[in-house]
Amino acid sequence: xxxxxxxxxxxxxxxxxxxxxxxxxxxxxxxxxxxxxxxxxxxxxxxxxxxxxxxxxxxxxxxxxxxxxxxxxxxxxxxxxxxxxxxxxxxxxxxxxxxxxxxxxxxxxxxxxxxxxxxxxxxxxxxxxxxxxxxxxxxxxxxxxxxxxxxxxxxxxxxxxxxxxxxxxxxxxxxxxxxxxxxxxxxxxxxxxxxxxxxxxxxxxxxxxxxxxxxxxxxxxxxxxxxxxxxxxxxxxxxxxxxxxxxxxxxxxxxxxxxxxxxxxxxxxxxxxxxxxxxxxxxxxxxxxxxxxxxxxxxxxxxxxxxxxxxxxxxxxxxxxxxxxxxxxxxxxxxxxxxxxxxxxxxxxxxxxxxxxxxxxxxxxxxxxxxxxxxxxxxxxxxxxxxxxxxxxxxxxxxxxxxxxxxxxxxxxxxxxxxxxxxxxxxxxxxxxxxxxxxxxxxxxxxxxxxxxxxxxxxxxxxxxxxxxxx
Length: 471
Ligand code: NAD
Description:
This protein is an alpha/beta fold.
């Protein structure tokens, strides 16, 4: 069985303890063994990153640009191995919006980071003073990632951190640690020792990492509940944090829209990665005039995209990643059904030792049903009927979440008007679930704190340093 290892100070480190990582498409098979870090390992990793920071932060900008290019190359050269590993541990298909897409996203992300610049500016150039604002790395960044897009989110945390002079200790989700362990091993082929370190272990390891005294910045992607704990932990030393948390993204289809022009994008906006995407469409509001047509078109797409083992080249949708998520989706759909929703397709887990759940359309869903009010994070889309546009905008906004939202249709001025009124960090028009390294992403309300990606995301890994000189 393949054993994966932590990398600390550029060295592969054997662990005393290992844990099996299961394949969600076949829960009786083990993908590999992941090390379980001890508190001593954690301290070694943070200390090594702290030591590396002393050389990395003052290094030439060109050296850090070159490192981003080298990382892009090393990921690209090992793309198929990484994609196979993601599919095996996470479940998403190799093809479509699956693991090859994810690995290619990592390559593009790293290349984009190489093209960024860290801005300094002159604030005053007068007879009295020359005042300049520069940006500097902060120190050791603790990166904590979830299980849905393990490699892409790891790259999206690590690359801006090291681009701006920081060093990193990353802790992936205990459900999907293997691809990140391998990624960091590959990165260490092209980086100075200690710049990027990886630990694996349980939730307790994440908590311990956020409390370590040498951590100078925390970047966390995961659930709201854990985000709150990370924030509490960070408050002890006022450690800067970026929190990218959950969402319950609403989409509104404008009355009388030409559905055929966008229905496929809408379907994938909800179902990509079997709905296990933070910025996925999670509840859809459709005017009563179009309700039947939209539901029928969605059912048709569900039937054309059955779930299957991600390792089959033909699969476009894979299983749910873990048992907790699987049971959550089952219970949300069952509850909605019991409360009067009409399950148009799917709605029943597949038999066997796996977490397969088919794409499901929950019609006649209404607010108050858990599947409408909560983040389902699965391939079950509630479709809610509406009569009045103003009412439905208020309904879409009536949530603790504010990650993304979308509006669909053709009437440009109305699309803009509705987009203006939707409360979310990102409002998509005729698309959903589209992220890019040059576009800031951040949630409002409980969906997060700060932004990642874009220039603002890059800046969030820096401290402003003012050089204020007398003339
Ligand atoms: P999770 O919060 O359970 O776990 C995320 C990570 O936090 C894991 O590595 C976990 O081990 C670690 N962790 C757990 N307890 C911790 C603690 N007390 N202190 C520090 N770390 C701790 O989330 P998940 O179930 O892995 O991921 C799904 C959630 O992530 C969904 O809510 C989804 O919307 C969200 N998500 C958000 C984004 C975004 O960009 N906004 C992206 C992907 C996923």
